[in-house]
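Recall that a protein's primary structure is simply its ordered list of amino acids. Everything else, from secondary elements to tertiary packing, is in principle encoded there. The following example makes that idea concrete.
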Amino acid sequence: MAPDPANAKSAFPRLPVLARWLRRVGRTWIERARGGETVFLFLTAAFIGLLGGLGAIAFEGAIHLFQDGFWGTVEPGLEWLRQVPVWKILLVPACGGLLVGLITTYLVAEAKGHGVPEVIKAVALAGGKIRGRVALAKTVASAVTIGSGGSAGREGPIIQIGAALASRVGQWMGMSARRLRTLVGCGAAAGIAATFNAPIAGALFAVEVILGEFGAGQFGPIVVSSVVATVVARAWHGNVPAFSPPPCTFASAWELVPYALLGLLCGLVSFAYIRLNVAADRFFEERRGWHPAVRPALGGLLVGLLALVVPHVLGDGHWLANDAFAGRFPGLLLLALVFAKMLATSVTLGSGGSGGVFSPALAIGALLGAWLGGVAEPALGARYGGLAAYALVGMGGLVAGSMLAPITAILMVFEITSNYPIILPVMLVSILSTALVSRLTGHLSIYTFKLDRQGIRLFRGRSPDLLQEHRVADHLRPHVETIRPAEPASVLMDRMLASAAAQFYVVDDQAALLGAITLGDARRVLLSPPPLARILMAEDVMRRDVPAVAPGESLSSALAKFARARLQELPVVQADDDRRLLGTLAYADVLAVYQDEVFKADSAPALSRGVSALAGNRIEIAPGFELAEWEPSARFHGRTLADARLPDVLGVHVLLIKRRDATGQLATLLPDAQTVLTAGDVLVLLGPAAAVARAAGS
């Protein structure tokens, strides 16, 4: 008998329910069988390490695949490039850029650029949530960029790939935001460790750069992931170091003088590297007439033009660093390559290419160190530790300075060389470089500079801005008063007198915003001579310079615009290049959100400790204001707090949410506007006594 289509259709919605049940049962069984939450987290970290190691191997294979397709070899070095036709050097990076542009424009926008800033942003502002499709898109886009000759590194993509895989695993298991951030750090550590055969540096990079803070509960799982990923990579490649420097040493205390100078030079070059990346980003972003899919192709074309003169700039710079160790470049060429590699990397990534800045930084540092080592050799004589020593120390200095990650830089050089004496100059150079860059940039690295341009400032891996996580879309008022530009001023006056709106907005036939008219503007019309008032139209009265906000903007960004405009509300438009009016954002609403966040920040520790005392009771915390617990009905399940609009519906604010995880353990959450309410949640409410009583009794 044929299956009933109706029954088949009705069965599909049950699949997600079944998946959640299997996930919950499997996780509970593992935790009970293996010793609880901590052991389960370590097991998950080990699994992520396995995924990260396999991801690094797959990513390397993808790069070799595209290198073979574009160039006919898996390792295009300098000697090979000298035999390649001019047209191929010029056009192959452009073709790769065009393919990447299509991927990032029409499929996954997160796949372009460094990758690391996006991971840091996800950890700081999104609770570690990253879309799973990012891993695949980043693998293909970055492999194409590097394989076609783009000047970009492997570490940024593999960090984002590992982090995306880890985030997807954590989300599938229903992990809390705290655990999810830890797992993202595990994925990043696994990627670095497997790529560079450096488990210690991988773990420290995740803590120092991705998470921005050290916690014992986070460090253990990260180390496990890093170790497992390294074991997987070594099983595939063998225990081979990422770079092959010749023997070198720290020969004399006299070398501290040129090493100190190298530290300062690394700081200056790191600063130039950061600023050049920012300038390239800004240049291509401001080319509004260039289609986003075409920009990476134009960037690839520029890199190809540069490669006609300096073919050394193509690729991630791995072989370039090894040649610097071996002393294969004369002094002036070393300096020229330093600036050429910085320019090529900035153009590749600024135009929208996909790849990292870590490997190019290693190559640039090796070139700079080799140059200074060559200059210092005649003066030091027998007290000279070797050219390779200066190149290695320069690598550490550039990584430390450009990424403000001195610990990662020191340990990476140590793992590459297994040479303890050279650690002393690496420590000196890394600290000097970091201190100088930190002073010049205001504590911004090459990663956080990009976030700062988006209005995101981080402290200890979190945004100290209380309004940064709130979006305009969650607080806009859809009802607006609009008027056409040709409407007479007399009609405008009549409508404004009859309306309670503070502002009227002038729009065209497509509802695109042209300007705004405030009560102050209307007052000037009323005070003008009658003959003039009769001939004036709305477009004659409106303000054309009123700043607008987009739904995806943070309230922090909106507040800055309020300060400049000195208005009580701002229009909300679809986007910067799409002026269709969606609603308004009131200054009073922004202040209310800020006050709520301040209250939460100040009272959260005490509330977290004493919330159990509620136990279904109402507690007066101030005259006329009470705390109470409330379990929302089914109609609220699956809705965000922003959608539930409890302040409007019930007249109360949500301070905390008590929620049980998959193991049955009770956790206390500090919610934000995007927190989704689920069955079994118990909300801690604050509000006027009457409102709290109504909510608690409903």
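The mean pLDDT is 80. The longest helix spans residues 37-71.
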